[in-house]
Amino acid sequence: MRLNTSDLSSMSKVLLVRFSSIGDIVLTTPVIRTLKAARPDWEIHYLTKPGYRDLLVHHPDLEQVHVLAENFGQTLQALRREDFTHIIDLHANLRSLRLKLGLRASSSTVRKYNWQKYRLVRTKRLRRPIPHIVSRYEDTLRPFGIAPAGNPLALYLPPGLETWAQETLAQAGFPGGRVPLAVVLGATHRTKRWLPEHFVTLLRRYQRPVLLLGGPDARAEADTLLSTLQLPIFDAVGQYGLLEAAALMKQARKVLTHDTGFMHIAAAFGLEVYSLWGSTVPALGMTPWQTPHVLLEGPDLPCRPCSKIGFDQCPEGHFRCMRELRPEQVLTALEQGIG
Predict the structure, then answer these.
(1) Torsion, CA 141, CA 144, CA 148, CA 154, rounded to 10
(2) Would you identify the CATH topology of the domain 5-144?
(3) pLDDT at 8
(4) Are 211 and 197 in contact (CB under 8 A)?
């Protein structure tokens, strides 16, 4: 059901919907801030999957974070009792469509630009630029008469967690609980991952203390670095929860990361972000938002982008997009910094 603009004066209870994943949810946070600033009396709720609740539960502008149950019918029944006046669909898939039909509230939905992304992947050309995802999310507020504000991303940590992170790093020998560089290893899709040997070469030449971050899937890469490098390294790979890892990363001056959720968490903290791009490209509209950043890419290859999300292995078999993104190029960017 589309938004009935005649009901806007009485509208007071809004449900934002984004089920996953880490980066995508963090990228929706400007919508929360913009909506609350324009309509401070409205009650804002959010629906997501259980594994991502922590990203939102401490947000001061959210009345409640609801989680998707395994039984969709249970979720629908619980949300009907809330009597939402409007749904802002920031996921735009079949499940969110079922939700909108089941709740029978008026709604607005993000435009995904799937055809343009498909065209970019298949032809390597775009007739028009794909707007940044944050801009597309904020466009869902236009039916309310609310213009996009371009607010920064936000991730709110629970009280005391940042102090814990500083003390943990200080006890590990990092002065002041700070670290010059955080390196985020791993990514859901392997074609988004830089080569472990490139990380070794880079960090051996960079010669500064490093914080290693990543999930359990990055354990092999972390072990390679730890066994090879003679540097002060704090190894947090697969050893902390999401918010604990984020709090540790917040103590870094610079963050080197793939095109992953932690890239957007770093942006939410306003850190300097140096992002490594392989099978995906910045033109897909998912670059770091409202933070100092450098986009690091290899040579202009006729096969890039091969996907909008990545693959488990290079479709061409050569993986030149990451192999030819050289450590020297990344080192130069880190040494020069952002003015």
Answers:
(1) -60
(2) Rossmann fold (3.40.50)
(3) 54
(4) no
Q: What is the DSSP string of 237-281?
A: TTTS-HHHHHHHHTTEEEEEEESSHHHHHHHHTT-EEEEEESSS-
pTM summary value: 0.95
Identify whether the C-beta of residue 156 lies closer than 8 Å to the C-beta of residue 60.
yes
Neighbour-count burial for 56-95, b at 16+ CB within 10 Å, e otherwise? bbbbebbeebbbbeeeeeebeeebeebebbbbbbbbbeee
**pLDDT on residue 204:** 97
* Contact assessment for residue 259 and residue 281, using Cβ atoms and an 8 Å cutoff: no
CB-hemisphere CA count at 13 Å for 316? 16
pLDDT, position 337 = 94
Q: Which CATH superfamily is domain 161-336 in?
A: Glycogen Phosphorylase B; (3.40.50.2000)
Taking the CA of residue 31 as centre, how many other CA atoms within 13 Å lie in the half-sphere pointing to its CB?
Answer: 32
Q: Give the C-alpha separation, 201 to 206, whole Å.
A: 9
Which pLDDT belongs to residue 143? 93
- In degrees and rounded to multiples of 5, residue 183 shows phi and psi of -115, 120
pLDDT at 4: 55
Domain ranges of the chain: 5-144, 161-336
In terms of DSSP bridges, do strands 210-213 and 233-235 run parallel, antiparallel, or are they unpaired? Answer: parallel
- Rounded Cα distance between 83 and 79, Å, is 7
Q: How far is CA 324 from CA 194, 280, 331, in A?
A: 10, 15, 14
Distance from C-alpha of 235 to C-alpha of 245, rounded to nearest angstrom: 11
pLDDT for 12: 85
Per-10-residue mean pLDDT for the chain, 339 residues long?
Answer: 54 92 97 97 97 98 97 97 97 97 96 96 95 98 95 98 98 97 95 97 97 96 96 97 98 97 98 98 97 96 95 96 98 93
